[in-house]
Write a structure and sequence with these properties.
Chain A is an alpha/beta fold and about 400 residues long. Chain A is built from 14 helices and eleven strands. In chain B, the strands form two sheets. A five-stranded mixed barrel of chain B has the order 4-5-6-8-7. The chains are: A alpha/beta (about 400), B mainly beta (about 140).
Chain lengths: ~400, ~140
Amino acid sequence: MRKVAIVGTGHTPFTFATEKTSIELFSEAAMDAINEANLKSKDIQALYLGNCLGDFSEGQAMLQSYAANDIGAFHIPATRFEGACASSSLAIRDAFIWVASGYYDIVLAGGVERAASIGTPLATRTFAMFTDSHYEYPAGMTFPAMFAMLTHLYSKSYGVPLEKLKEQMAQVSVQSHRYGMLNPKGQFHKEIAKDDVLNGFMVTSPLQLLDCCPFTDGAAAVILTSEEKAKELTDKPVNIIGIGQASSGGLSSQKNYLPRLRAREVSVKEAYEMSGIGPEDIDVCELHDCFSIASLIAAESLGFFEYGKAGEAWERGDTEIGGKIPINVSGGLKSKGHPIGATGASQVSEIYHQIRGECGGRQVEGAKIGLTDTLGGDGVICNLIMEKGW
Amino acid sequence: MDYKLTFKDYADALTKGKLLGLKCNSCGKITVPPKMACQECGETDLEIVEMNKKGKIVTFTKVNVAPEGRENETPYIIALVQLEEGPWIMGNLIDIDPDKVTMELMDKEVKVGFRVFPGDKYSPGNQPRPLFSFA
């Protein structure tokens, strides 16, 4: 396998409902990535595009072909990746594999979603399509409900009283909003206090409004090339050194592991082994905080904290810049926003800029190695490890 | 390979008051909801068995924000129940005011009935789901 580098990224503002189409959003991110990489659209050999809900938000399936054509990358193979909220991480992982194999030298990968434009009722319905349609949806399953049930299970499994756990979870949202102030591309630029979280509207017990990430419109894209090609294009390539992906069945089928998500443990182990490093070597991490409790569950399975202890870590500041492992200093899904098909590419973009030292007020000084963690539905996980390539 | 216990057969049985599962002839464990392969060992030599419809609540939530088309059902309680035979199944809990649920629900013993979700434009017709009530 050849070494693979990221040489450019693009990232639209993440926003509430926009009037731009999905094609327009993705093309803006894609051209920014292509320009940053000192390439032209005609240099792109393949497009791997994450998108979940184009069919519902715009009546537009097969977005990938129109997107390739839209940016002037005529007639290239274009493939859509659908892995719920992990779609574009899956796209980037596959792009890595195809470049590493030698089949392509330059691939554009990313994602786009208009999850805000779709409106809350239909968004709630379509997000519920990422649960088991026959054996779980009939009970009225929603995505917040899944993580609400995991919260109660976490409390019981690890002996953390619910009231204490809720305070720890509130701290996760507070930290994300604080760093979100420093991300001009993010959806929210508003600090919140613990009491704001704990006094919020109850979405699905025990998750309140500010325990939940928002619905978001936006796009993000990255250019992957061979190491050799990267040297021609940039002085500061960021190499992908480890990849992992795994899947699970419906929530009830995961009974032997919950509240842990076993797929994450399989995926991140693969990524750590491939890169030859462990969690102690990660300088900065973007993980899938679709709900505050999801951050705790993720950080533990990624190996940063003991099971049942991640909430204490957030309260101690271990997850802040300067702490043991800075987590979601982009603002995370909670504050930066969560346009589901674009989220993984956005996380990768953040790590790329962190390693290049380009993150301004939220920069983790000296960051050389970063990890992304993206969860799709109740059972798709993708992890990517990136390293300074110069 | 034929599917041993299809959703239709599982659903038809549930609406007649029977909760069906699959017993693995390799490891002896039970799989519910039904699948092609045993949830525990992945083998496919399975036989249909009837569950005794008793279990305990392993987790729950009270939903206040419903998906499109189901707004009139709120608030409702979703629960995951561990059956006496081992598997977990998802359904709705009745017999309690949704606004009064607390962590005290954990481990409460329940019995399994059913209620039909009539489906919506995205789902293929009637889909019964387990309905839990206190044992």
